[in-house]
């Protein structure tokens, strides 16, 4: 029997997604096939363990699905099974990162990651997160110009000698130089862990340099630019020099950390949806999609600059843009709220060296993965920049702008 109340709420959310311009940099709209895999009977099954090593009977098909997801994951990132292994069971990005630390560190050992206020992630060692509570953490930032300073990161690493260096971000709009990170990690005998969650789709499509030639471990969520279900994967480098130094079988340590270390049964419907999204990400059309994400972000940046918005690092190389509103009479929270009234969905975000609090910071973060999934291109992006300008600078009535937003959305159905 259907719960009408719930059905109604889901319908309202469908309507909201259809009628708004979503610029949340970490979100995406999945394909119908991904949704179908997620909504399948695979959710009924318990499968603790790994393919051909399960604790319950009845896993013959689930084994094939999990191995298919693993095979597709390696293929999507052009990896060979003899060099890399992949665990597709983490429930999401935070548990994936937790599993890596659990596998490679003892409590109290040192992680060095990008600070949250500079665009890092909670799980990269921020003080209120488990990563900042159970481990010693050192945080690096960006320069005043918004770019990573590899010289400073190297100095800090040499002084602090972390056991893991995390490269990766949630609000960094420039290419990350994994080669430089790897050289630093080697110099101090640290593992290089790359959290490529935000840029995974761009990496798969070859529009952002790959971390795989340099990293010991790569984690990623599957629901951002990769356009899959909520979920995550951990890739481990069988050739990791540092793992050999510590005499660790990195693959087995990470598998054991995921299960039985931290999780119970994998979400098999999610694993199947990951296999589907990786199948999609290996198609030539996905490369075009990822290229368009970046073109759209660059166009948005260019137009916003023409409207005199100040952008962190003055632009973007990837899918996202950080606007610094510090010189305007609107805070990040107010901007988010005004834009939402107009039907443009963004998130407030701290900017590097922010003087305001994370609850009402000086910035907003914009991303182009969702609008690109809907088929929007440069022309629509230019219009979106104009609408943002009219809401935030010209202070036009957002409910009037909302009519224009709905018109654009109607042309790009989901
Ligand atoms: N919440 C994600 C983001 O918005 O970047 C990170 O986990």
Brief overview:
The chain has 414 residues and is an alpha/beta fold. It contains 16 helices and 15 strands.
CATH topology of the largest domain, anyone?
Answer: Aspartate Aminotransferase, domain 2
Hetero groups in this structure are: D-serine
- The number of helical elements comes to 16
The Cα radius of gyration reads: 21 Å
* Number of extended strands: 15
User: Any idea how many domains?
Assistant: 2
Low-confidence region ranges: none
Query: Mean pLDDT score, rounded?
Result: 98
Q: Given the helix and strand composition, which structural class is it?
A: alpha/beta
Q: Please give the order of strands in the largest beta sheet.
A: 4-10-9-8-7-5-6
For the record, give the distance between the C-alpha atoms at the N and C termini, rounded to a whole number.
28 Å
Q: Give the amount of beta strand, in percent.
A: 5-15%
State the helical fraction: 40-55%
